C-alpha cells in the first residue's frame, strides 16, 4: 500500500518486484487402469512404490495384468503412480458380530480373510461405572484363508451406539477403518454387540469370521469397465482421472492374462484414451495387440490402429513392439509374456529424472530391467521396416541387453511429416503447456496493460531460460533457443476490450539423432619422387 505521509520524517515503502516463480510440473506420474485384488474402486489413488500397491491393492494377482504392469513400472525406475481399480461384478464379503453387521471395505474375495471381535474394556464414566453404550472393535485380515498369520490389524476403541456421541460407531468405522464398512442403509444398532470374550486358557479373542459364501472377485473386465459412455458423467473408469490433480503418462494393460484378441484393449478404447490424454496434456503408451507375432503383422496392421485413433490424437501416443517375456513370481518364476507398457513408462520416468524430459527414452541407457527375452527378436532390417511407420522397437543387443530402440509418436510415420514426430519433442511441449498453464493463473483479473505484459515476459522468460541452461532447447544463445512475446502487437486494443491477453511462446526443440552416418574415405597420397 502507498504510504500516506502525515509527519515530517523518513517513510519506508516496500515495492513488489513483480517476480513470480514458475515451477515446472512433474513429468512422469503414470496412471494405471485395471483390475486389482482389493482397494478402492474408481478412485485415483497415488502411490510411490510397489510396497504401497501391495498394502492398498493386494500386490500381484494372477487375474490382474495391471498388478504386473505396476511392478514392472517401479522395477524400471518409476517413482510416482496413480492407480484406478475397476471390476466387473465383484462383491463385498459380509461379517456379522451379534447385532453388528459389517462388510469388507472393498469388493473381492480378499474379504473372506477378515475376522473381528468385540470387547467391553472401554473407558469408564466419571463415577467409575461402565458405559453400557461403549465397545471396542478389533478387525484382522489374515494372509490367506485358514491361515493364522495376520496381515493387518485394526482396533477401534470406545465406539458408541449413541448417535449424538462423538464416537458414534458408524462414523468412526467409516472414517478410520481401512478394512471394513457398515453396509449402506443398514439400520443403527441401539445396543452394543455381545462381548466375544476370550478363548479358554489362551487369552486370545474369540473372533467371528467373515461369511465365506460372500465376497467375489467378479469376472474378467472388458472395455466397458474402462471407458463406457455412461462412465464419464459418473467419473468412473478412465474418467476417474478427472479427480486427480495431474498425470503425465497413461497405461491401460491388457484386460486379461490370456494371449488372444479378447484380452486386447480395443481400437475404440485406445481412441478414447488418446482423446482424453490430448485434453489432459498427457501421453498414452499403447501396447501391441496379441496378434502382432511377426514383423509382417505389425507392418500391415499399424495403419489400421493409427486410423482408428486418428492422426491428430496419435501425436499424444506411442506404441512399442514386441511384448516382453519375464519371470512370473506367482508361477514359480516361470517365463511368461507381458505387455510392455509398465516397463516402458518406468523407463520414461527414469530417463526424465536422469537426463530430462527432452532426452529421448531410448538408446543404450534405456535398458529394460527384468526381461529374460523378447517375444520376437528382430534384425536391423526388420527394425528398418517398423521405424518409418512410427512403431518403436524393443531390441536385444550383445553387451547392452534389451533396450528401447525407437522414440517416435504414433503420428511419427515418415509419410505423415508431423511436427510431433518424436516422443521427447511432444512430451516437452506438453510439459511447457502444463507448467505455464499453472504458472500464469495469477494473471487473471490483473490490469491488462504494459506493466502486466512486462511481468509476463519476465516470469515466463526466466522459466524458459532456466530450461535453456539445462540443455532443453537447440541454439547457442537464448535468442536462438526460445522467445516470449507479449506486447501491443500480440494484444491489441480489441483484445483488451474483450479482456484477453495473448502470450506467444516459441521454442526450438532438440530432436533425437536417429541415424548416425559415418563417412570414410581413403587418403590418396602422391609417391615421393
TrEMBL record:
Every Tail sheath protein C-terminal domain range: 418-522
InterPro entries cross-referenced by the UniProt entry: Phage_sheath_subtilisin, Tail_sheath_C, Tail_sheath_structural
Domain named Tail sheath protein subtilisin-like: residues: 245-410
Regions crossing the membrane: none
Family designation: Belongs to the myoviridae tail sheath protein family.
PANTHER family: PHAGE TAIL SHEATH PROTEIN, PTHR35861
Protein name per the record: Tail sheath protein
Originating organism: Crinalium epipsammum PCC 9333
Amino acid at each position: 500500500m502507498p504510504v500516506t505521509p502525515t509527519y515530517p520524517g523518513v517513510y519506508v515503502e516496500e515495492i513488489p518486484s513483480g517476480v513470480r516463480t514458475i515451477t515446472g510440473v512433474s513429468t512422469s506420474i503414470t496412471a494405471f487402469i485395471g483390475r486389482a485384488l482389493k482397494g478402492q474402486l474408481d478412485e485415483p489413488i497415488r502411490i510411490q512404490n510397489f510396497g504401497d500397491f501391495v498394502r492398498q491393492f493386494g500386490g500381484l494377482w494372477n487375474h490382474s495384468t495391471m498388478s504386473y504392469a505396476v511392478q514392472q513400472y517401479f522395477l524400471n525406475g518409476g517413482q510416482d503412480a496413480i492407480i484406478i481399480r475397476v471390476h466387473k461384478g465383484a462383491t463385498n464379503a459380509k461379517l456379522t458380530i451379534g447385532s453388528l453387521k459389517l462388510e469388507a471395505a472393498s469388493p473381492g474375495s480378499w474379504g473372506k480373510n477378515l475376522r473381528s471381535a468385540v470387547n467391553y474394556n472401554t473407558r469408564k464414566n466419571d463415577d467409575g461405572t461402565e458405559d453400557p453404550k461403549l465397545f471396542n472393535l478389533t478387525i484382522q485380515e489374515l494372509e490367506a484363508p485358514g491361515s493364522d498369520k495376520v496381515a493387518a490389524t485394526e482396533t477401534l476403541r470406545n465406539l458408541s451406539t449413541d448417535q449424538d456421541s462423538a464416537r458414534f460407531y458408524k462414523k468412526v468405522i467409516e472414517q478410520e477403518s481401512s478394512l471394513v464398512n457398515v453396509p449402506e442403509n443398514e439400520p443403527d444398532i441401539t445396543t452394543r454387540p455381545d462381548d466375544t470374550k476370550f478363548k479358554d486358557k489362551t487369552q486370545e479373542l474369540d473372533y467371528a469370521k467373515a461369511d465365506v459364501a460372500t465376497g467375489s472377485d467378479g469376472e474378467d473386465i472388458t472395455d466397458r469397465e474402462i471407458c463406457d459412455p455412461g462412465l464419464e458423467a459418473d467419473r468412473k473408469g478412465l474418467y476417474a482421472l478427472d479427480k486427480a490433480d495431474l498425470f503425465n503418462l497413461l497405461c491401460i494393460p491388457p484386460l486379461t492374462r490370456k494371449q488372444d484378441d479378447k484380452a486386447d484393449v480395443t481400437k475404440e478404447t485406445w481412441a478414447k484414451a488418446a482423446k482424453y490424454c490430448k485434453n489432459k496434456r498427457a501421453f498414452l503408451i499403447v501396447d501391441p495387440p496379441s496378434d502382432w507375432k511377426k514383423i509382417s503383422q505389425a507392418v500391415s496392421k499399424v495403419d489400421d490402429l493409427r486410423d482408428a485413433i486418428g492422426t491428430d490424437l496419435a501425436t499424444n501416443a506411442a506404441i512399442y513392439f514386441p511384448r516382453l517375456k519375464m519371470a512370473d513370481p506367482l508361477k514359480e518364476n516361470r517365463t511368461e509374456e507381458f505387455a510392455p507398457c509398465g516397463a516402458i513408462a518406468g523407463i520414461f520416468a527414469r530417463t526424465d529424472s536422469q537426463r530430462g524430459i527432452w532426452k529421448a527414452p531410448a538408446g543404450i541407457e534405456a535398458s529394460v530391467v527384468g526381461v529374460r527375452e523378447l517375444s520376437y527378436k528382430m534384425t536391423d532390417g526388420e527394425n528398418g521396416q517398423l521405424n518409418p511407420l512410427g512403431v518403436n522397437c524393443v531390441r536385444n543387443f550383445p553387451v547392452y541387453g534389451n533396450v528401447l530402440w525407437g522414440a517416435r509418436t504414433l503420428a511419427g510415420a515418415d509419410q505423415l511429416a508431423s511436427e510431433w514426430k518424436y516422443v521427447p519433442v511432444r512430451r516437452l511441449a506438453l510439459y511447457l503447456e502444463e507448467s505455464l498453464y499453472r504458472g500464469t493463473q495469477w494473471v487473471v483479473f490483473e490490469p491488462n496493460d504494459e506493466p502486466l505484459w512486462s511481468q509476463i515476459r519476465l516470469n515466463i522468460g526466466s522459466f524458459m531460460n532456466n530450461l535453456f541452461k539445462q540443455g532443453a532447447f537447440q541454439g547457442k544463445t537464448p535468442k536462438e533457443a526460445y522467445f516470449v512475446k507479449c506486447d501491443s502487437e500480440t494484444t491489441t486494443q480489441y483484445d483488451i476490450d474483450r479482456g484477453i491477453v495473448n502470450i506467444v511462446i516459441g521454442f526450438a526443440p532438440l530432436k533425437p539423432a536417429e541415424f548416425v552416418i559415418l563417412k570414410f574415405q581413403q587418403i590418396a597420397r602422391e609417391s615421393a619422387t
